[in-house]
């Protein structure tokens, strides 16, 4: 490291007690720099997950501090109850549906935004805003336009005979789930747009110019220049989106609270309801632990697919 | 369209008509994006300026003079709403400051200092993308309650900062690696300490990365619903998203037009950031921070 040269040239050196430690000064300072991050992770991830596992072995009422040891009973109950498997299934439907739509729309938007010549900045800003707008505002908008009392989409849909004029589409068993997927996609497709657009901007124009000189058409340029540069990022964002959508709680809770009945209850909603409606804190933690295990499997897939160790060594 | 065909446009078209078709498709796509992207925002704006009685029972497309009103914005003065918005701003600022400071220091350490297990540390950091507010929030509720962080804005700031860490730290790390170390060495030769080199040489050059990380943290804090809903159960401390939802549930006088007015105000900062800082945002996301 060049740092050593710098230190030896320095004229006055203050004595710092860590000079006498067994580890080198650089090691101590280095570890010191990442220590805050470690503390945050321990506080927000390691503790809660350990705590969740410990709590899941107990029978706990949400509001009372009394813990009754029941071993693995919560887990037996988790795999036995029908609502768990139903929620898991609905969560998978929600996740796959959302991710596919978001991938198609997000990629398409990125390709278009990258090519338009006039108003690019403004349109990009509008698209980005969709992602930055708080989810609650998207939900409030959706609740307004699908409201049977003067909601514009409700009226339009009733005009097309999708639902009756007095029915709330978000409260119907047929429409709640598809609408949740579509409303969420309005916002979250932009996540994919941001990442692919950033990648598209990084492709030098001379590649396309050279291809043009060689007589390639637009499809060939897309297939041989654009697509190979995007596959890596697409894999990553699809994986991230799937994980995020599987864990989505906010927009579902805001729009339907998991209803009507159980029609939009996914695992996060089930866990939340278990804490606050059923007051079964221990059982909810068992669900959280099971969800965490799903995440862990995704994490392993993530590392296998993407191999971040390569990233660690590359510089940019 | 295989490559051994004689050179020509797509679908056997000539280059000229291929370009025309492409331009037409591009125009159509742009129109759809404008429509789908702008329409909801327009709708929110026009409803915010329409009298609330009208909004509740009829579809209006434009706030004509007879139904136009500014009264909906009176909701901003409502002490409850004001508290929610104030809390959201405090949490957003707190999260931005924490994320930028912690990630700058950690990024510098990862980029410039060598210490054991550095690569493994960076790899473990990526697991942070898998933290889900609902999985973490449920156990965190009890933990925060027992150490007294429940219902405090600091508790929420800590949780949100941890969530932004993987992105922010990787971003800073990769970005600092692009700054030549020679700049710092020059400062060391002049007798600057590592800390001074960091403060006066590295930090000023990190501006784009700092802005990108700050924007990301802002988006997370401004958006957050799940953590706030679980960790801030009482009305006085909670943020906008859970606050407004609870107010709706309590069946108070809260017509949709008022909600649209307050939503519009909450949308303005993201819109301004998206317009003025998009180049930083894109630059930040170009660094492979995933």
CATH architectural type of chain A: Orthogonal Bundle
Order of helices and strands of chain B: HHHHHHHHHHHHH
Overall pLDDT of chain B: 83
Number of helices of chain A: 14
The number of distinct structural domains of chain B comes to: 1
How are the secondary structure elements laid out?
The complex is a heterodimer of chains A (316) and B (290).
Chain A: H1 3-9, H2 25-56, E1 58-60, E2 67-69, H3 73-80, H4 82-115, H5 120-132, H6 135-145, H7 152-159, H8 176-201, H9 205-213, H10 218-246, H11 250-255, H12 267-276, H13 281-306, H14 308-313
Antiparallel strand pairs in A: 1-2
Helix pairs in contact in A: 2-13, 3-13, 4-8, 4-10, 5-8, 8-10, 10-13, 12-13
Chain B: H1 15-48, H2 52-57, H3 79-112, H4 118-125, H5 133-147, H6 153-177, H7 181-189, H8 194-205, H9 207-223, H10 226-231, H11 240-249, H12 256-276, H13 278-286
Helix pairs in contact in B: 1-12, 3-6, 3-9, 3-11, 6-9, 7-8, 9-13
Q: What structural keywords apply?
A:
heterodimer, A: 316 residues, mainly alpha, MetI-like fold, two-stranded antiparallel sheet, 2 strands, disordered N terminus, disordered C terminus, B: 290 residues, 13 helices, globular
Task: Describe what you observe in this structure.
The complex is a heterodimer of chains A (316) and B (290). Chain A has one domain: Orthogonal Bundle (MetI-like fold), CATH 1.10.3720.10. Helices cover 71% and strands 2% of the residues of chain A. Chain A contains 14 helices and two strands. Chain A starts with a helix and ends with a helix. In chain A, 39% of the residues are buried. Chain B has one domain: MetI-like (MetI-like fold, Orthogonal Bundle). Helix content of chain B is 71%, strand content 0%. Chain B is built from 13 helices and no strands. The radius of gyration of chain B is 25 Å and the shape is globular. The N terminus of chain B is likely disordered. Chains A and B meet through helix 1, helix 2, helix 4, helix 5 and helix 6 of A and helix 1, helix 2, helix 3, helix 4 and helix 5 of B.
């Amino acid at each position: 490291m060049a740092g050593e040269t710098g230190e030896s040239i320095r004229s006055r050196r203050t004595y710092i007690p860590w000079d006498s430690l067994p580890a080198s000064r650089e090691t101590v300072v280095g570890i010191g720099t990442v220590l805050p991050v470690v503390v945050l992770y321990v506080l927000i991830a390691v503790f809660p997950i350990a705590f969740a596992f410990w709590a899941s072995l107990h029978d706990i009422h949400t509001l009372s501090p009394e813990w009754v040891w029941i071993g693995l009973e919560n887990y037996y109950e988790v795999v036995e109850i029908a609502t768990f498997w139903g929620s898991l299934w609905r969560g998978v439907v929600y996740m796959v549906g959302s991710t596919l739509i978001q991938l198609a729309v997000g990629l398409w938007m990125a390709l278009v935004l990258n090519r338009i010549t006039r108003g690019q900045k403004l349109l990009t800003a509008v698209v980005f805003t969709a992602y930055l707008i708080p989810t609650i505002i998207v939900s409030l908008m959706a609740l307004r336009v699908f409201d049977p009392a003067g909601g514009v989409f409700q009226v339009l849909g009733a005009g097309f005979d999708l639902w009756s004029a007095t029915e709330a589409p978000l409260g119907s068993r047929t429409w709640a789930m598809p609408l949740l997927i579509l409303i969420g996609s309005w916002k979250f497709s932009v996540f994919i747009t941001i990442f692919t657009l950033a990648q598209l901007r990084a492709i030098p124009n001379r590649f396309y110019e050279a291809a043009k000189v060689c007589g390639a058409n637009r499809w060939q340029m897309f297939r041989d220049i654009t697509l190979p540069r995007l596959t890596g990022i697409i894999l990553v964002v699809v994986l991230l989106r799937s994980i995020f959508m599987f864990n989505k709680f906010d927009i579902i809770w805001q729009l339907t609270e998991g209803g009507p009945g159980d029609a939009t209850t996914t695992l996060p909603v089930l866990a939340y309801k278990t804490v606050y409606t059923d007051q079964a804190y221990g059982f909810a933690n068992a669900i959280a632990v099971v969800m965490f295990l799903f995440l862990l499997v995704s994490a392993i897939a993530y590392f296998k697919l993407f191999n971040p160790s390569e990233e660690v060594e590359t510089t940019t | 369209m295989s490559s051994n065909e004689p050179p020509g446009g797509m679908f056997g078209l000539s280059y000229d008509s291929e370009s025309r078709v492409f331009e037409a498709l591009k125009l159509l796509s742009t129109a759809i994006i404008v429509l789908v992207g702008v329409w909801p925002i327009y709708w929110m704006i026009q409803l915010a300026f329409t009298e609330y009685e009208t909004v509740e029972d009829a579809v209006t497309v434009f706030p004509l003079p007879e139904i136009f009103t500014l009264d909906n914005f009176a909701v901003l003065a409502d002490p409850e709403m004001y508290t929610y918005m104030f809390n959201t701003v405090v949490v957003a600022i707190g999260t931005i400051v924490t994320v930028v400071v912690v990630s700058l220091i950690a990024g510098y350490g990862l980029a410039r200092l060598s210490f054991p297990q550095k690569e493994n540390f960076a790899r473990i950091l990526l697991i942070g993308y898998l933290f889900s507010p609902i999985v973490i929030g449920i156990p965190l509720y009890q933990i925060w309650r027992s150490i007294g962080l429940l219902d405090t804005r600091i508790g929420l700031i800590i949780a949100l900062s941890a969530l932004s860490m993987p992105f922010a730290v990787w971003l800073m790390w990769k970005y600092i690696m692009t700054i030549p170390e020679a700049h710092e060495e020059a400062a060391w030769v002049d007798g600057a300490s590592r800390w001074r080199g960091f403060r006066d040489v590295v930090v000023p050059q990190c501006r784009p990365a700092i802005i990108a990380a700050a924007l990301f943290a802002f988006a997370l804090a401004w958006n957050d619903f799940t953590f706030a809903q679980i960790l801030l159960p009482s009305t006085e401390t909670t943020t906008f998203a859970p606050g407004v939802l609870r107010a709706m549930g309590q069946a108070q006088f809260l017509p949709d037009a008022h909600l649209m007015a307050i939503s519009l105000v909450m949308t303005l900062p993201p819109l301004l950031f998206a317009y003025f800082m998009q180049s930083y945002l894109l630059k930040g996301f170009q660094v492979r921070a995933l």
